[in-house]
Design a protein that fits this description.
The complex is a heterodimer of chains A (397) and B (358). With 397 residues, chain A is an all-alpha fold. Chain A has 17 helices and no strands. In chain A, helix 1 crosses helix 2, helix 6 runs antiparallel to helix 8 and helix 11 crosses helix 14. Chain B has 17 helices and 6 strands. Chains A and B meet through helix 10, helix 14 and helix 15 of A and helix 1 and helix 12 of B.
């Protein structure tokens, strides 16, 4: 990308130089105006590429300050002539390439570390893994489009006639917002949150301390099998692909085999055992068969079976009831906090919007927005609607 | 499983209710109580869905334990609603399985929601009462319900659907009858104790009935003072939950044979309870009883007394070792509060007099 711009800028610089030589008799002020006009006559793309690299400007200005004190040191970011040579856009030299490369490598390393972390994490309630995969693919595509196709002058130049080629990356960041923010909000606000939320029993099983309480109680009333099976399936999900077959076999042999000491209370157990054994044996040829969701239905059945024991435990152990009570309280507090935060957010938006209205009182059509409506109504919809109107007005100016 | 660690929380919980799991160590604590004759241990045995837990719940209720208080029944809302959902799901699945289409399009929509997304919290919304009731009254569902012997369905289905207007409300508190009617598969073993006079305590033990659960019964066999064996009269047209295709009556007879002829029980009073008499009487009015029993006189098949007599003979024929004079046979309708109170009282008297004779 940088190389490409550099090439373009070079072209511009050379033309400018020609002009410079032509009008060398003129005064400096004249040269500047001339070059500016000639630049503006050039295609817009040069200005757009200037836009894209303006982030160098702060560094350049700092450097310019340093340079003006001690002119013996070579400049790092700027070409000869420094900051005030307006006849060219940005300059690429070796030091900039190295700095950018180091920066890029740093970010890539960070990204890889987080990728690995996200794939080790066992629980994925919010489908972050899927989201990450989609994003990585998109990122790759964007990089290929930008970095590789950008080298092909034909493609880059042709695109530039319609939209600046640099928009590829901007489009990517836009898509990222859609995939990571907009889409999840739309999907999860559709009531799926309820299903994602763990039941009391599942919560009880996830916590190490309460799990032991339940297992101990189940043991004493002669039904530890569903609790143990639930745990083993949870462990199976964490097992690496290599050991998964072993873990799966263990589960089927311990809990699904008729006559085993920890046989589950499951309809058509024999048939189920046969089905699972077959899947596991076939997995030799096809690794993908042993998915983490293999025992999903069995686990649900375990939860179902545990309901009876869990109810008895709740009835008989005061400690359990206290723990559950506490969890419920915490949950309620959390929900109340969420509501408070939302309300605060809403209030703050109204205030800022009002301020904006007052500040921008010179705007036309302000009268058409019902300000009293905003003041009186706490309803989110009614707050949002005027903002929408306001923004449309703003754009039309 | 022999070594059971009793954790501190066990003792802590004992004050809450009379019914607590005592440390069920077969060689330790219980052996000592067997010598101590102030405690009479009664086992409730029988195959799956024979009504052991229903009777257990009733006995708890007579003794003011568990479900007497509103507060404790509120805890059971989830279970009642789950029962509704499971029944609805099973019925919808059965219409597919039996190839009986649900007739009304809007009921088909409801059915889809039930299978895919409906959960117990949704039932707080009273609109579900109408939708579920309309589904229940759909000709397709009703036809599937008439053929319910072909799939697994709880006995409480009709009751729950008829009471949807109460259940689908955010103010719903399960009644005692609701709790008695709901089905929860018992897992493991649970017990309760109560005083029966003369300074004696009766310890009633409830167990799970499916095949894998039965292997756990043995933990109690050597401490037992009386056995109450339940079997469902209305199961003559049904197959097993754990093994579809296996006739329930055959299973009950087999289990009865194993238990009653067990050497540990030779000297123990034995009660055989034919449960679900109410359901049975309704069932034989519409279904043929003699179709399932080749030895039964077809002309008598609408007479419940004759049918029960036949069933009694069938079961008593299984007894080869146990002395017949310590076996008592009774019929029961465990969902009926008064009937179960009366029958349980008789059972208690029978056991006590047998104990005295010893």
């Amino acid at each position: 990308m940088k190389m490409n711009e550099y090439k373009k800028d070079e072209k511009i610089t050379t033309t400018n130089n020609n002009q410079l030589s032509q009008i060398s008799n003129n005064t400096t002020t004249n040269t500047t105006t001339n070059t500016i006009s000639s630049l503006s006559n050039k295609k817009i793309n040069s200005s757009s590429s200037n836009n894209l690299t303006y982030d160098n400007d702060t560094e350049s200005s700092i450097e310019e300050g340093i340079y003006s004190r001690d002119s013996s040191k070579p400049r790092v970011f700027l070409g000869d002539g420094g900051f005030f040579v307006s006849t060219r856009g940005c300059v690429i030299n070796n030091s900039i390439v190295i700095i950018l490369a180091v920066e890029a490598i740093f970010y890539i390393v960070v990204e890889i570390v987080f990728l690995v972390l996200s794939f080790i994490t066992p629980r994925d309630t919010w489908f972050i893994k899927r989201e990450t995969l989609v994003l990585i693919t998109l990122q790759f595509l964007a990089i290929i489009l930008f970095a590789i196709c950008g080298f092909l002058d034909a493609i880059a130049n042709f695109t530039d006639y319609f939209v600046p080629f640099g928009f590829v990356l901007m489009t990517y960041s836009f898509v990222e917002v859609i995939v990571c923010v907009l889409f999840p909000i739309l999907v999860y606000s559709n009531g799926k949150i309820k299903n994602g939320k763990d039941s009391e029993l599942e919560q009880f099983l996830m916590n190490k301390r309460t799990f032991t309480i339940l297992l101990d109680f189940a043991r004493r009333s002669y039904c530890p099998e569903s609790v143990l099976c639930y745990r083993d399936i949870e462990r199976y999900k964490l097992t690496s692909k290599k050991n998964r077959k072993k873990a799966a076999l263990k589960i089927t042999k311990t809990y699904l085999k008729t006559g085993s000491p920890l046989e589950l209370n499951f309809p058509k157990l024999n048939q189920t055992f046969e089905e699972y054994s077959q899947i596991i044996n076939n997995s030799n040829n096809n690794q993908s068969l042993l998915e983490t969701s293999l025992f999903e239905s069995i686990q649900l059945h375990c939860l179902d079976d545990m309901r009876d024991v869990f109810d008895r435990l709740k009835n008989q152990s005061k400690e359990t009831r206290n723990i559950l009570e506490q969890w419920k309280l915490q949950q309620q507090l959390k929900e109340m906090d969420d509501i408070n935060i939302n309300m605060n957010n809403n209030n703050s938006t109204t205030i800022t919007m009002q301020q904006q209205f007052e500040d921008d009182s010179y705007l036309p059509n302000v009268e058409s927005i019902d300000l009293s409506n905003i003041n009186n109504n706490q309803n989110i919809f009614k707050i949002i609607l005027p903002i929408g109107v306001f923004e449309i007005d703003n754009l039309t100016i | 499983m022999g070594n059971i660690v009793v954790s501190p929380h066990d003792k802590e919980g004992q004050h809450h209710m009379m019914a607590t799991p005592t440390s069920n160590n077969p060689n330790g604590g219980s052996a000592a109580t067997a010598k101590n004759k102030s405690e009479i241990t009664v086992l409730l045995l029988g195959a799956g869905e024979s009504g052991k837990s229903t009777l257990f719940k009733q006995v708890q209720f007579f003794h003011g334990v568990g479900i007497t208080h509103d507060q404790e029944r509120i805890e059971l809302i989830e279970i009642v609603r789950l029962n509704v959902l499971e029944n609805a799901k099973n019925l919808v699945a059965a219409t597919q399985h039996l190839n009986i289409p649900i007739e009304q399009p809007e009921n088909r929509e409801t059915a889809k929601l039930i299978i895919n997304s409906l959960n117990t919290n949704d039932l707080e919304d009273p609109s579900w009462s109408k939708r579920l009731y309309s589904l229940w009254k759909d000709a397709g569902i009703q036809k599937a319900y008439e053929n319910r012997e072909k799939f697994q369905l709880y006995d409480s289905t009709e009751y729950l659907f008829e009471n949807l207007d109460r259940i689908c409300s955010d103010k719903y508190v399960p009644t005692v009858v609701d709790v008695i009617r709901t089905r929860t598969k018992t897992i493991g073993i649970t017990d309760m104790k109560f005083d029966v006079g003369d300074g004696k305590q009766l310890r009633l033990v409830d167990v799970g009935g499916q095949r894998n659960e039965r292997r756990k019964w043995i933990h109690f066999f050597n401490t037992v003072d009386a056995v109450v064996f339940l079997t469902s009269l209305s199961e003559f047209d049904l197959n097993l939950y754990e093994d579809n295709g296996y006739w329930r009556v055959k299973e009950s007879l087999r289990v009865f044979n194993e238990v009653v002829n067990n050497a540990l029980f030779y000297k123990v009073p034995f009660v055989l309870l034919f449960n679900k008499r109410d359901l049975f009487e309704k069932k034989i009015a519409t279904k043929s009883f003699s179709k399932y029993f080749s030895g039964f006189n077809e002309a008598e098949e609408k007479n419940p007394v004759a049918c029960i007599e036949y069933m009694t003979k069938l079961f008593l024929n299984e007894i080869t070792e146990h002395p017949l004079d310590t076996v008592s046979v009774k019929t029961l309708s465990a969902i009926d509060h008064d009937n179960s109170k009366q029958v349980f009282e008789e059972v208690k008297q029978f056991i006590m007099t047998q104990q005295h004779r010893e």
